[in-house]
Amino acid sequence: MKIKRIGVLTRDCAGVNACLRAIVRTAAYHNIEVMGIFRGYEGLMNDDMKIFDRRAVSGIINLGGTILKTSRAKKFMTGQGQRRAVAVIEQNNIDGLIVVGGNGSLAGAHVLADKYNIPVIGVPATIDNDINGVEMSIGADTAINVALDALDKIRDTATSLERIFVVEVMGRDCGFIALRAALAGGCEDAIIPEKKFSIEKIAEEITEGNVRGKVSWIVVVAEGKAKAGVIAGQITGLTGLETREVVLGHIQRGGIPTAFDRILAARYGNYAVELLKNGESGKCVAIKNYQMSSVPLAQAIKHKDIQAEDYYKLIKLLT
């Protein structure tokens, strides 16, 4: 089937707009029309969309978030919601769909492709970088750099005031950001969902370091494993040393995308259109050995091993 019109829906993280730009302009090159779908699957079910031409995506390559907006769509998880989405796709003569997002978004894409035979290509965009079979997702590099910038500033204060800081970063089910930011920031420990931790052991190491003359200490905590305030209170109670907590929160999801994320987004968006144009479906774009590739959506939404132990050992070795 010749692809004449593509629908695009997104989640939000830095680099998504750069991906949308690449999708629209690659499609225009092939004389394919693009329908931008507002507010994700919610907008798809509500027929909230409009045509995006080349000019509609001018000046967005450096913007964080998504100009298409996004929202959670519990109704789409039901058969009724899915059938409504399929009906809207058919009513708007959409020949294929590109879904830019994380596990939840890609799980929805898999349902549309597998259960309803809608031509769908997924694009991985999540700061947790937890899409299976994908080396890097759009937004992950920017999120790490946002966290790292904060850690560098906190390190200045920690050293000057000779204090311990516990910094909470995003990562409900995955310690990717915590591990990478902790290693890049020269932090002393990371508490992550993938690994058990002992607060007594951490406190012991801090006390021993203090005896040796180490004047500051930073522990990075993934939000899904523990809360910074709780950990800080426990450390103070066990060591008698003043400990402060910092919660970085949603600043990690926003911000100007890094050059890496912009380039990755451009390549992913371009390749997603090419896959749809060539009759592919049920795939998630990926990069392997610097070359464009893809993995089945059924594989992409499975659990991903982020090599937590290797990164954690290096953090501790370099402390």
Largest sheet: 7 strands, mixed
- Helicity range: 40-55%
Radius of gyration: 22 Å
Mean pLDDT: 96
Order of helices and strands: EHEHEHEHEHEHEHEHEHEEHH
Counting structural domains, the number is: 2
User: Beta-strand level of the residues, as a percent range?
Assistant: 15-25%
Brief summary of the model shown:
This protein has helices at residues 16-29, 40-45, 79-91, 103-116, 140-161, 176-184, 199-211, 228-239, 259-277, 297-300, 308-317; strands spanning 5-10, 33-37, 49-52, 96-101, 120-124, 164-169, 189-191, 217-222, 243-247, 283-288, 291-296. It has 319 residues and is of the alpha/beta class.
SSE blueprint:
Elements: E1 5-10, H1 16-29, E2 33-37, H2 40-45, E3 49-52, H3 79-91, E4 96-101, H4 103-116, E5 120-124, H5 140-161, E6 164-169, H6 176-184, E7 189-191, H7 199-211, E8 217-222, H8 228-239, E9 243-247, H9 259-277, E10 283-288, E11 291-296, H10 297-300, H11 308-317
Q: What does this protein look like?
A:
- With 319 residues, the protein is of the alpha/beta class.
- It has helices at 16-29, 40-45, 79-91, 103-116, 140-161, 176-184, 199-211, 228-239, 259-277, 297-300, 308-317; strands at 5-10, 33-37, 49-52, 96-101, 120-124, 164-169, 189-191, 217-222, 243-247, 283-288, 291-296.
- Strand 7 (189-191), helix 7 and strand 8 form a beta-alpha-beta unit.
- The chain has two domains: 5-139 and 257-300, 3-Layer(aba) Sandwich (Rossmann fold), CATH 3.40.50.450; 144-253, Rossmann fold.
- It has a seven-stranded mixed beta sheet with strand order 3-2-1-4-5-10-11, with helices on both faces. Strands 7-8-6-9 form a four-stranded parallel beta sheet, sandwiched between helices.
- The chain is built from eleven helices and eleven strands.
- The chain starts with a strand and ends with a helix.
- The radius of gyration is 22 Å and the shape is elongated.
